[in-house]
Amino acid sequence: MTDHAIVDLARRLPQLRLLSEPGDLEHYGRDWTRRWTPAPRAIALPASSDEVQGIVRWANEHNVAIVPSGGRTGLSGGAVAANGELVLSLERMNRVLGFDAVDRTLTVQPGIALEAVHGAAREHGLLYPVDFAARGSCSIGGNIATNAGGIRVIRYGNTREWIAGLKVVAGNGELLDLNRGLIKNSSGYDLRQLMIGSEGTLGIVVEATLRLTDPPPTSQVMLLALPTMDALMDVFALFRSRLSLQAFEFFTDVALKHVLAHGAQRAIDGDHPYYVVTEFESPDEKTQDAALAAFEHGVEQGWISDGVLAQSDAQAAALWRLREGITESLAPHKPYKNDVSVRIGALPVFLHDIQTLLAREYPHIDVVWFGHIGDGNLHINVLKPESLSDADFIAQCEHVTKLLADTLHKHGGSISAEHGIGLVKRAYLESTRSPAEIALMRGIRQVFDPLGILNPGKLFA
Amino acid sequence: MTDHAIVDLARRLPQLRLLSEPGDLEHYGRDWTRRWTPAPRAIALPASSDEVQGIVRWANEHNVAIVPSGGRTGLSGGAVAANGELVLSLERMNRVLGFDAVDRTLTVQPGIALEAVHGAAREHGLLYPVDFAARGSCSIGGNIATNAGGIRVIRYGNTREWIAGLKVVAGNGELLDLNRGLIKNSSGYDLRQLMIGSEGTLGIVVEATLRLTDPPPTSQVMLLALPTMDALMDVFALFRSRLSLQAFEFFTDVALKHVLAHGAQRAIDGDHPYYVVTEFESPDEKTQDAALAAFEHGVEQGWISDGVLAQSDAQAAALWRLREGITESLAPHKPYKNDVSVRIGALPVFLHDIQTLLAREYPHIDVVWFGHIGDGNLHINVLKPESLSDADFIAQCEHVTKLLADTLHKHGGSISAEHGIGLVKRAYLESTRSPAEIALMRGIRQVFDPLGILNPGKLFA
């Protein structure tokens, strides 16, 4: 079958790389969710903003849906193409375009991997501080599309805080040059901020100017074992009041079991229900003393059962692996993922509510908890029993997610802390955003993308 | 003449305080610009979100324009009511509603003064770090409407960074509860961010949850005299690389002349064309040594002519007064104000360009420069000669502003760094935002406020 629209696209943009082999369609049509069968029409791999703009204008004329595509490490189906869309992959637009030492900004193309951004900042003696386990595969464009968070949010905030400027091709085909690296710019609505977290439904980022900062002083990594969930908040408050925290991550014994089975090294003996990996700035011996004093106070109070302070970079990396290796260790069990948040102050009651909920609803199913306590962000991974079919398993999880969404609504939380809504959570959007907000969001989408060609079906049905 | 719409408003909201005496209309109908003759229809002083929502719904039914009103310290005419609008003053909604020690947030009503927010944070041992000279009169709602910046942006960023949640009555009458204090919330478009800096054209903030932080360690204040404009950037780079800067503010000899005539005390002898007030964290003697070493290096390089390090809180306050007293000292001269910004990296060339421009265009007029070099933000105050009429003076200044806007456009700058567009700068908006961006902004306004009842004529004509 000849695809006349694609023929026209190739005619208009003769340099544009286009792929349509079945293997390519499958590879570029899915993300890490693996729930939908990839079925894009074709894959376009533009090499410039001009080509991106040309594609968007073509799509408007032919009314073809576009799925913007980065590293496809997303967990909400935001980059899935299952309905004859054109996948617009930004993987060839992956260069560093410039560095400004006075402004301390790095200008990059959207397809660059987060890890490459880290490296480029380091070359100039500076830090791009957003970080998480998918750093080697995820792209900065995708980070912007979901306002990615990760393991340093407690110290540095989300991606939003680090975007000094964005060039964007809007859904209507216009090229926008938003904020241009200005620190102060009170000249109307900040469309840059609107673009961040919009999951490819308003425009396609073709260039980003990232703010960099000074690297932190030397830091130290500690693993703590905790006897109860209540102790989590006590230990967090204790450590936050005495140290300058870079990270404060928790996981459960069930998570530990999987990551150890996947090759990580046990660092604390005995059985403990909860663990924390924390990293804190440690410029001098005073901080190390403060950390040990905080640890001892926690032990005396009965909040901490055991602990290890890393004595070398290698040991620090080994402790971090216990937390960062969790996602990979669960992959073989086809986990169903929830990524939720509440205010930190609402965490204790919320944790109890969902502990009760999950124990009741998943009586014979392994549920792995981990997350970023200091951000109020909890990741829940439900592992598929071999006896259940994929469809039955997902149906059961979606039933529980509905209950979880109700609990989140009660606590003023969010059904998506950092993964985005995509396809996976759009049925639960009303737990987090009111009908009035959703109506405004739909109206805004209509303004940027009147024909709805960008990532249709994502975020809203 | 009976105003039937106002009669209906009073009937619907019998508790609502309404004013319509000539003195009230004048008082509430103008802001610090004083360029327009106040002519509102009436003044409403709601005491609750419900009353605000009732007013907005009434305004939609009667097609009455509303001017949201805080401290009216604005310098762009954003709170001017000169066309029969209803002024909706938030001054009675000025309470602290709550403090959360775990989340470290303060929830306030929009009419609270910035200084009262500082005080409330201090009571809990914490800091709300946005700060500027109008702190005693400006309201937090107005700060949010313009994304207010000020003197600590170099260290803490603009208002935008400190807003954890907003309750807003949108132009369509819906009450929105945006982000609810969450640190991580990737659930669609961040309407909170869109509201910040929208100058009362999308919605009226009825409650704000502000993020607080640890107070800084002890700081020190230094006044520097500089021989050339080029030295400004050198001294900034030098001090930024060696110290943790809280503020880095510059002003000229012309500004000094006015502030001294207004009662401030001279701190450095002799005539110097440029001055800097800088404040830096100084937790220990090491930092003080570093500051002195930086100073000496600057002197050796010929970048610094003289300097004073404050030896007491009183002396620090006296040095700060040299910078913070400028605006007040200029007021009797009816200054025409520009508030512009460029990337810091673009400052040196930009400063030379506009120095040439202003010297050429204002040959016989005092022009006072000051601003926030570390943010790329420059305030230009043109003083009205007594011989010129108000109208002729403003016409001349608007002609020069057009040329300044062209220069800003060339350097990728902004016609409004922190004051907003309002009425004063709307003719120059296209120097900063492209026609495509402005069209999107108009579209967004239409979504939030279909009848255009909120602050019509502000931001766009």
From TrEMBL, chains A, B:
Cofactor(s) needed for function: FAD
GO molecular function: FAD binding; oxidoreductase activity
Gene3D superfamilies: 3.30.465.10, 3.30.70.2190, 3.30.70.2740, Uridine Diphospho-n-acetylenolpyruvylglucosamine Reductase, domain 2, Vanillyl-alcohol Oxidase, Chain A, domain 4
GO biological process terms held by the UniProt record: respiratory electron transport chain
The keyword Flavoprotein belongs to this UniProt entry's keyword annotation: yes
Pfam (any one): FAD_binding_4
Domain FAD-binding PCMH-type: 36-215
Keyword terms: FAD, Flavoprotein, Oxidoreductase
Lineage top rank: taxon: Bacteria
Family the entry assigns: Belongs to the FAD-binding oxidoreductase/transferase type 4 family.
Alphabetical list of PANTHER family matching this protein: D-2-HYDROXYGLUTARATE DEHYDROGENASE, MITOCHONDRIAL
Protein name as it appears in the record: FAD-binding oxidoreductase
Species in which this protein is naturally found: Dyella dinghuensis
